[in-house]
Amino acid sequence: MKRFTIAAVAAATSAMLPAAPVSADEAALAARLPAVFAQAADQYRGLVKRMDGRENCFPKRWQDGKLVTVKPTDWCSGFFPGSLWYLYEYTKAEDVKSAAEKFTAIQDQVRNYTGNHDIGFMLMTSVGNALRLAPKPEYKGILLDGAAALVSRYDEKLGLIRSWNNGKGKGAMYADHFLVIVDNMMNLELLEWAAKNGGDPKFKAVAKSHADKTNLHHFRDDSSAYHILDYNPDNGKIFSYRAGQGASADGTWARGQSWAVYGFAMMYRETGDEAYLSRAMRCADYVLNEPNMPADKVTYWDFKAAGIPDEERDTSAAAIFASAFLELSTLAPAEKGRAYRNFAVRSLLALTSPAYFAAVGENGNFLLKHGVGHKPGRSEVDVPLNYGDYYFLEALVRFWKLAVLAK
Ligand code: GLY
Question: Inter-axis angle of helices 6-16 and 315-331, to 10 degrees?
Fold first, then answer.
């Protein structure tokens, strides 16, 4: 199957359409890019410095005046090197590249990690970007091993990859259950890459099966996503739908919805299967039509959180939406594509403003303020998060390619 790049699709699409007028919002964002990337690179130079003397770990968030780091097996381990790679892609600064290489090298040790489903996040953000921007001979093997590790969690009977391991002992919360979270769509990109780059063709079949089952089970009629599906491992029947990181099992956790838009757009890019495009668009349309979406398009952490408008925003979900909507804008029919692109640009204008984008030296040297990791767990509420920064930079690079380089 042909691999579509954003730039290639944008070029093909614009060849068929009358040139869209550049909106004032797009012009403003394009004009802001050089200063935003310069500020972001300086901010991350400070974060690299904060890591001096800390071994085998990565910055994840800044909380209560302290830097919180994570080990390589954490789902967030790849985002810091990945952000450095996006900064390098735009700035071409050699010191940023050296830092990206140094932190990417740490990820070699998780290449066979099977403890959860997150290896796609860990490796595609770090090693995947490294391979794309400054290839080294070892990178391919790491990604291929990572894909095999992910597939080891696949259950043939259910046709799904197990997200988390069961709790231990009688009465443990997850004992004898098979949990799948919508976030898992993101890890399928590693399988798609591996299947096209010398890996077992089964990788592709596993990604397809997992995406098809997620498409079938993980959404309400309005295409809002459940966070956790709790399957019976014996017969694949659904025991329950769980709120997880969302406000309630009936609500819509914003980051879960953003993983859905991103994951299904990515699967359409990789496979050409129209069912995935349709799901990505329906998930995106839910967001466009969501009455609780603030005017600046920086979402609340849950669209149905009880205290809206006094609930926290989640800049991480906003950044993922921006990046996903930009990709979807190149895949969807023209009119819809324009709506997705306009939404992404509006949110990036907000995210690059001082309300959300930290001045150099502030915010523990992270880029975005006001992220929410897991409010029901009272963890990471209104803090900077490394994954928010990663998708913010990815969205800005995608916008740069679409709006500036493709011109
Ligand atoms: N499990 C990834 C997230 O918190 O979004």
Answer: 50
Single-letter residue type at 48: V
In whole angstroms, what is the distance from residue 368 CA to residue 359 CA?
Answer: 10
Question: Hunting for tokens 């299967």 — which residue is that?
Answer: 273
Ligand 1 centre distance from Cα of residue 313 (Å) = 16
Residues 6+ apart with CB under 8 A from 247: 253, 302, 304, 305, 306, 375, 376
For the record, the structure tokens of 266 come out as 């990515």
3-state secondary structure of 64: coil
Q: From the CB of 392, is ligand 1 less than 6 Å away?
A: no
Q: How many helices (H) and strands (E) does the chain have?
A: 14, 9
Please give the CATH topology (third level) of the domain spanning 6-405.
Answer: Glycosyltransferase (1.50.10)
Q: Of the listed 74, 145, 183, 314, which one is catalytic? A: 183
262 lines ligand 1 (CB under 6 A): no
Q: Please list the rounded mean pLDDT of every run of 10 residues in the chain (407 residues).
A: 44 46 90 98 98 98 97 98 98 98 98 96 98 98 98 97 78 77 98 98 98 98 96 93 93 97 98 98 98 98 97 98 98 97 98 98 98 96 98 98 93
CB count in 10 Å sphere of residue 23: 15
Question: What are 259's two structure tokens?
Answer: 């993983």
Q: How far apart are CA 101 and CA 116, in angstroms?
A: 25
